[in-house]
Design goal:
Blueprint: H1 2-21, E1 25-30, H2 38-49, E2 69-74, H3 79-87, E3 93-97, H4 98-106, E4 120-136, E5 151-153, H5 160-171, E6 180-182, H6 186-194, E7 200-205, H7 210-217, E8 221-223, H8 229-237, E9 241-246, E10 257-269, H9 274-284, H10 290-294, H11 318-326
Parallel strand pairs: 1-2, 1-3, 5-6, 5-7
Antiparallel strand pairs: 3-10, 4-7, 4-8, 4-10, 9-10
């Protein structure tokens, strides 16, 4: 056993020496559980930005990542766990929903009465998670104002969905005290809706959401748009929201539905130097890396330079900001940067 341990230590020492000689560097990307969208998207990003020592040059058909970098996507319990791991130095970067990120940085929502998390910086917005307002057919709900007096699930208290739903309701002039609020997580809410015990529910997810699809297919549910001047007001007040459209045909028999969304954003620890994060950002958006993104999960195909700053309401990493300014991408005038 001791001989084996000694041999292992020797091999690790040799590997470490070789790594140092070749400037090998690792980057850990926290994602979500293996069954979520975030994990395969994280794998696609890791492949795109990696370029291990000895890789064929990008110009010759090889890797177009950061020279010497090996990025690794790791499973996690999601946005809150990722924020905690990055803050504690247990992870280098991660995929985090924009509303939860905003709350962490500003000490609001789920992070109310907690210390704000100050060492998080954004590299890019990746893809959107759409806010679905699902209502019962025949319940007389065609707009948000019609929710007054109805049985509505806003998700559990303290959840990101609850936070978003309350902000949207406020923008439309509806108070939660005017609703019959039902506290249920999405799985429970879908069951209550199917049993006729709910008139409406809010759920956040990349479309199509399976539970929503099931209810629509059964003929008991339809979607109500979140749009108009109140939605515009929500967008102005809360920069982590973005305008969104659930395309026609996403749910059986449904036309296009205007709504709002929150972004899944790639976040990194502020401790990383500007030049390294600049190189990461440049590698992510290298046109030759589209094959890595387009060949993976459907959501990875939505990672586009044109939406890289959608819903970004927390500080960009200076290295990422430098890249976006260099290529002429317009940064919102009030976008916080550090």
């Amino acid at each position: 056993m001791k001989a084996g341990l000694a041999l292992l230590c020797l091999l690790l020492g040799l590997a470490t020496g070789a790594a140092a000689e070749e400037n090998l560097r690792f980057l850990r990307i926290a994602t979500g559980s293996a069954g979520t969208t975030a994990f395969p998207v994280g794998m696609a990003i890791a492949n795109a930005v990696s370029s291990p020592p000895g890789s064929r040059p990008c110009a010759k058909g090889g890797s177009c990542g950061v020279p010497g970098l090996v990025a690794v996507a790791q499973t996690s319990e999601g946005s809150i766990a990722n924020i905690g791991a990055i803050a504690a130095g247990q992870m280098d970067s991660g995929i985090v929903l924009s509303d939860i990120l905003y709350g962490a940085v500003n000490g609001e929502s789920l992070y109310f009465r907690r210390a704000a998390v100050g060492n998080l910086r954004v590299i890019a917005n990746l893809y959107q998670e759409s806010i679905h307002l699902v209502v019962r057919r025949g319940a007389g709900i065609s707009k948000i104002g019609d929710l007054v007096g109805k049985r509505v699930s806003l998700d559990r208290a303290g959840s990101g969905t609850r936070f978003n739903a309350e902000l949207i309701l406020t923008s439309f002039g509806v108070r939660t005290s005017q609703l019959q609020v039902v506290e249920a997580d999405p799985g429970e809410a879908f069951g209550l809706f199917a049993a006729g015990e709910l008139d409406a529910l809010f759920v956040v997810g990349g479309y199509p959401v399976q539970g929503v699809e099931d209810l629509v297919n059964q003929g008991s549910a339809e979607l109500v748009p979140i749009s108009g001047r109140p939605a515009d007001q929500a967008l102005r007040r809360h920069r982590f929201f973005a305008r969104d459209v659930i395309p026609a045909g996403t749910y059986f028999g449904a036309g296009a539905v205007e709504t709002l969304s929150v972004g899944a954003q790639w976040v990194i620890s502020a401790q990383f130097d500007s030049d390294f994060v600049y190189a990461l950002t440049k590698a992510l958006w290298n046109p030759r890396n589209r094959i890595m993104l387009d060949g993976g999960h459907a959501k990875a195909r939505l990672i586009q330079l044109g939406t890289a700053l959608d819903g970004v309401s927390t500080p960009l990493h200076p290295g990422a900001e430098r890249y976006y300014r260099e290529i002429g991408l317009k940064l919102p005038g009030d976008l916080p940067t550090q």
